[in-house]
Amino acid sequence: MGLHGMGGVGKTTLLTQINNKFRHDGYVCFDIVAFKDSHTQKIQEEIANKLGMVGADWNKKDKNQKAFDIHNFLKWKTFVLLLEDIWEKVNLSEIGIPFPNTENGCKVIFTTRSQEVCRRMGVNVKMEVQCLAPNDALDLFLKKVGEVTLQSHLDIPYLANMIARKCYGLPLALNVIGETMSCKRTIQEWQHAVNVLTSYAAEFSGMEDEILPILKYSYDNLKDEKVKLCLQYYSLFPEDERIYKDELVNYLIFEGVIDGDQGIEKAENQDERRALYQVYMHDVVREMALWIASDFGKQKDNFIVRGRAGLCETPKVKNWNVVRRMSLMSNKIADLSGIPECLHLTTLLMQKNEALSNISNGFFRFMSKLVVLDLSYNRNLSELPAQISDLVSLQYLNMSKTNIECLPLGFRELKKLRYLNLEFTWNLSSIVGISSLLDLKVLRLRGSGVSLDVSTVEELQVLEQLEILTLGIGYDSGLVQFLSSHRLISCIRDLEISGLQLESSGISFSTTMNNLQYLEFLGCTISEIKIDLTYSPLRNLMSPCFLSLSHVYVQGCKILRELTWLMFAPSLTYIDVEFSEQLEYIISKEKASVGETSGIVPFLKLKFLRLSNVPELKNIYWSSLPFPCLKTIIATGCPNLKRLPLNSKSGLEGEKELIIRYREKEWIEGVEWEDEATKTRFLPSCVKV
């Protein structure tokens, strides 16, 4: 049995209770603390000592002889071996431990901070020891504080609740801080404790001596220095913040923590937990990371982290020269003024300061080492100072969701810039001069006011290092030139097409758009979406081509009749089609004949399908499909959709079974199921919305 969980969560306490239970039941129990450097012989010595086998003869034996003796001693006994805090797989046979099974009744139980160790040990039972639920955590904290202290002032129970929440259910923190507060009986002492835990928790009594070192032990045992830097970077975000993984990864790429030399997409995919959309950091672990980043409290200004602190101005800093990273996100700062000498500052996170409207011309003058600058979500910020040119080391700049109107001339001097995000900058109409940024690898323009005219396309074509491009296009003068640029369209990741008027010719997409992940059509008058084989090495459609495309959204395309090309996108997870009055087929049997003969089965990864106000829609697909990942179908305002491409074996089953949501009672009553088994399978999971 393996018990895994973070340091201080209570694994050792639970192991002690298990030990006592088995001793009471008559088992031979011996517990071993197996630290990271514990090798086979060290564990053998511990076990031999517990069993009374040590002595002169024992010391003369080699590892194999000792394993033989331990095995002979234990093979006739019903034992329980408890291994505490193991960091890697322990080979039981090398030590001499008889393999536990139901026949001999023996057991091996261990604790670890790594779920991977549980897997490698091949446990029968794996249990995660989690932090306490809020009510249980409060009960433990109040018990440690004691009734005498709690009754010393009417407001102390309320403040106790606040402090307990700061511990986020971690028993170690609840115990240590609770014991510290048990002798604090004035309201001033309790208010001070709340202030310390909110501003810089490492200064709280017991935190630095008893709590943080235990968590640091896990940190020290991280194998890769880059992983340690990642953990410190997490701590720049406010407590309780859900951190978007893609956002964090991009910071780390351009800070040089994650290697981006082999390509941005490859770097993004280095994370084994690629499926995670957001990450979350336990607040006590965050305090540990900040404590380490500040050289164990000796240099508090190394990392200045005051996110969501209600600040109306930048904090007072004694010595700006020691500041390396600063996070002031989610505050009320309206003005960045003065000329701070931040000669070693590499990261400045200023996003989500809704009041920010001014950055003085000299503010960036002494930030020559700044690499990452995030000004996103500052909706009152309409211009950048000309002296942004002083940021000679800048590689990452995020200006998304600001009110920026133009790029200053100094912008062209950011020669090292590799990531530029201008998404949803509606007032930005031009990116003239962008061709000066020759190292640019990522350019995000979707949702901006930038017009794709001929001159803009020509500037984009100069950016030979460009790997990722997001864009919104309409009937712009440079549209034809853009779609004919093999290199530019191969960089497209997100594409929003709105108001396009191509009633007679339709629009063609190249088969080389393998980076395309998100595609949106809004209010377009296009008769057909075609696939251009010009750059296809095979010049046919016998295999999938839009390999990365996962999301497709079609709205208000009134003369579009089918979306057959979707069958050549094998990674689709989300399809949303609405207000398309003449759409008859998602995939047309007639036009899909090539794909059908090649054996392509569409929608194998599809999770969500929404069809709303598509009155002429007759078919999604002409026969049943497996839909192994499909969780939801929504069909509203589709009176002519009589058949769904389902059979009794389609979709997910069990707790996560496929749900069909509908609005019109007459529609669900008129559905023509493939057979009675299909109807029996899916009708109970149909839900009216």
TrEMBL record:
InterPro entries named among the record's database cross-references: Apaf_helical (IPR042197), LRR_dom_sf (IPR032675), LRR_R13L4/SHOC2-like (IPR055414), NB-ARC (IPR002182), P-loop_NTPase (IPR027417), Plant_NBS-LRR (IPR050905)
Domain Disease resistance R13L4/SHOC-2-like LRR: 323-612
Pfam families in UniProt: LRR_14, NB-ARC
Keyword Repeat: yes
Keywords: ATP-binding, Nucleotide-binding, Plant defense, Repeat
Residues annotated as transmembrane: none
GO biological process: defense response
Domain NB-ARC: start-end pairs: 1-149
Listed GO MF terms: ADP binding; ATP binding
Keyword Zinc appears in the UniProt entry: no
Family classification: Belongs to the disease resistance NB-LRR family.
Annotated protein name in UniProt: Uncharacterized protein
Taxonomy of the source species: Eukaryota, Viridiplantae, Streptophyta, Embryophyta, Tracheophyta
